[in-house]
Amino acid sequence: MKSITTKRIGDSVHGFLNRPTFVLLLLVVMAGCGRQEAGVSKLRIGADGNAEAFVGQSFPVEAHVAATTTISEAEINIRPVSGDGWVFNGPFSEGIAGKKDATFAARIDVPADTEPGNYTLTLRVIDADGSVSESTGDFRIGIDSTVPIAGDLDVGINAAGNDLHLETELTVPGKIDQVTVEIKGDAWSDEVTFAGDRLVGQLAHHFHEHIAVAEAPKGDYRVILTVADQRGRRAQAEGTFTKK
């Protein structure tokens, strides 16, 4: 029968473990393992860090952040690499404030009227002692041709004040699922959903509908039209009217 011999590691290195040099080295290593380098690292912009975003959609920003004391808050600044374009500045503290190190995660909404192009994002972390660390990365904002588009919304109310006219052009590569119209006022609101056979499944549609608003009292109203495609993506168009 084959025998197996075991040896306690402590027996063979007993003399070495007693050496003052080893003890000092061990203390240095342990101290180094417990120290977290302050700053911003592993900055990732876009889905899977692909450095891409799209007009009218949100995109993720992730990074590892650490402070010498504790984290007070973070700030994100976005600006065009050159020329004119979208500028964004925003503070973030959720999930990181009061911690010594943490994973920063946020989603940034790109406005629908953003100019496509190359942009620079800077993530700054402010310590409780006022010191600042930052990391910068470039990314591109493009146009996703697969998302729904709602054109300018034409809104009008008739002289009798009981019929609301709505008209716009809808382009929906993912096919229309439904259109919802919200009417919001200080004292009255309403919501109407359109999902008829001549609308659902269409790639493009000239939306022209009328909504009864006889019950609405006099006042100013905001109209929000939302078109949703069959993958759940949405586009909106807005307008206003006054009932006298």
TrEMBL record:
Gene3D superfamilies: Immunoglobulins. It comes from the Bacteria. This is DUF4625 domain-containing protein. The lineage of its organism: Bacteria, Pseudomonadati, Bacteroidota, Sphingobacteriia, Sphingobacteriales.
